Each structure stands twice: as C-alpha cells, then as structure tokens.
Amino acid sequence: MQKKSLKESINAGKKVIGICLGAQLIAHCLGAKVNLAPNREIGWFPVYPESVDSISGLFKNHPEVFHWHGEVFDVPEGGTTLLRSQANPNQAFSFGRQVLGLQFHLEMTQPSIEGIILHAPAEDHRLPFVQSPGQMLHQVAERTAELNKIANTLFDCFLLDA
Fold first, then answer.
1. pLDDT tier at 101 (50, 70, 90 boundaries)?
2. How many domains are there within the chain?
3. To pair with 88 at 20 to 30 A between CA atoms, which of 50, 63, 70, 149?
4. What range does the domain containing 18 cover?
C-alpha cells in the first residue's frame, strides 16, 4: 500500500519527502534500484553537495549528519543527485521540484538516537563507517540541535518552493 500511495502522490504533483527507507521507496517507485550499500553507514558522517541549488547549499560546509543504513538507492532517471558521502555516492536526490529523498536522518533527537542504539542489534564497529555507541552519543545534544536546524531550514525551503 505504501508504494501505491507514493506513486499516487507523486503523479498528483504533491510534495513528497522520504527519509532513509522512505527515500528508497520513492526511488523504487520512480523506477530506480535499491541495493546493498557499498558500505554500511551507522553514526555521524559528513555529506557533500553534488549540485548547486538551494537544498544542496545548506550542506556546503559538509555537516555531519546521522546515518543508519545498509542499503542505498540509485537516483531515478530524470532525478538529480544532491548529496554524497565518503562511504556511498547517493545520499540525497530530487525529482523535479516536488520529490526529495534523503538517505540519512535529519529528524533524529537525542532520545531517538539513544533508543535506536539500545534496541538495534549490535553492529561491527571495526567497519570503516560504523561508529560505536560511545562515538554516536558523543556531544549528541549539540549534534542533534544542529541537525534539527538544518532539517527545519531544508523542509521549509523544499515545502515553500513552488
């Protein structure tokens, strides 16, 4: 049902934002593949702009954003790659002015990060892009505050762009 609703919303010209699995579902609905990521990304890692627009401009200083994924989307045909990371090439895409997909998480808060760490299966912290719980929780209040500022600006910019 989720994919059908996404397709209907996109076809109706509605604004659609997908985060992590949501971005993967949108990409799939637009004909792109979702695959295992070249590298699992779990923790705080920077993203880098791939295009010059108002959304990518919010990331010009390469902020560390919160990742928790082992899969990635291909950018749909006709879409624009907005951001990449060192670990994986596709971190954000747009499709026209109505669709935005983010592989990473801007919506996280300190309690949500603490909860995911507490309830998720243990990860192999020896992998290059997988941080330990201690690394993820280091300065988490400050990091999530900055993350949420970016989220608020990004979502306002995207939703108000006509």
1. very high
2. 1
3. 149
4. 2-160
